[in-house]
User: What shape does this take?
Amino acid sequence: MCVTNHLLQNFWLLEEFSLSTFDFTPPQTSIDTASLRRRIRQFLTSAMEDISPRERAYSWTGYNANFSEKMGKDGWIGMQWPELYGGRNASPLERYVVIEELLAAGAPVGAHWIADRQSGTHLLRYASDRIKSEYMPKIAAGELFFCIGMSEPNAGSDLAAIHTHARKVDEGWIINGSKLWTTHAVRSHMMIALVRTDRSEQRHNGLSQFVIDLSLPGITINGITDQTGEVHFGEVFFEEVLVANDCLLGTEGQGWQQVNAELALERSGPERYLSSYRLIEEFIDTQTDCSDDLNTDAIGEWIAELWTLRQMSLSMAAQIAEGKEPALEAAIVKDLGATFEQSLPHSVAALMSDDGQHTPPSALSEVLDYLLLASPSFSLRGGTREILRGIIARGLGLR
Ligand SMILES: Cc1cc2nc3c(=O)[nH]c(=O)nc-3n(C[C@H](O)[C@H](O)[C@H](O)COP(=O)(O)OP(=O)(O)OC[C@H]3O[C@@H](n4cnc5c(N)ncnc54)[C@H](O)[C@@H]3O)c2cc1C
Assistant: This one.
């Protein structure tokens, strides 16, 4: 076995050092992350038997409702939430460990990912007791899937330009407008949408968030095929859609502040640097000759970079656990992470073409072909590179 292979296998086990740098937990609680890691690995070994290399390459966007149900049954979704709402009061560190393992294995977590990462947590914070009791246990069971309704035609980077609006009526709110580029729109049950509730206000005011059942009358959803051939996202139209009063999340007019808190959850996690991780695993599996300096050096560089990104991402998780909203830091992690994730497929392609002697094994080719087509989107989804750098510049004091 090559030394690089050995290194990678132990990469995640170096956490003794890394995780102790950040104090996530009350001092009296000690968390056995090694045994947690063993348990999630055991679950993945049996639950992923029939998952192909291509499906593993989708990483956290791979939609597989059966797999989500298995995860729900085994208690891996909504881990951090109170038991009352289907969770098990796990710490942010425990969730981080589980997420890392899921991503490293290429588990198809896309169906429940958004609900687990942000929608459920958002509901916990801003929803009525009825909404929390009705939806959160179903999310935790891996049965109810959410999507994010922020972007619209002509309102992506400039999110405050959204036109979708809600007007107050006696029975609740009537919503009209449309959302675009909504991940898994065609397969989700619910959306948390940012809409305008007061058109007379300045653009960052007068915005509110609603939780919307996508099966309601007046909603039309069309899938959009992306350049990988997948129907990853879609467009959603709302025509006179009536939602109940308690579907308003948080406070009317506070949507901009709420959405920014949600974006911090969306931008800082390990998925922002591990989207191409399967490629490293597949590449290492093909390495039989440790004397190939070019390949060994490349693997060493990737691992060094992963390690640094992981430290940064962990510090975000610690801040979020303390109740902070580290928007600037999250933008930095996402920007650096996306740059790494995007460069990896090109580095592997270059190494494979240098080695023109034999045809690459099919698993590696499948993962590589997919990531070469998918990776340009990594610096668009969740906020473009230029927008993130604007946030960073302002955070560093640019006037
Ligand atoms: C795979 C994928 C999944 C997505 N999933 C979702 C989802 O689930 N829900 C959702 O709401 N949205 C989703 N999006 C949409 C995503 O958030 C938007 O694509 C993104 O915010 C950019 O908006 P836009 O596409 O309108 O591009 P634009 O905002 O029109 O930007 C076009 C280009 O101009 C640059 N630009 C724009 N403004 C500035 C500026 N002020 N300074 C410098 N450069 C600028 C941008 O960086 C970009 O390069 C998804 C996108 C992708 C690719």
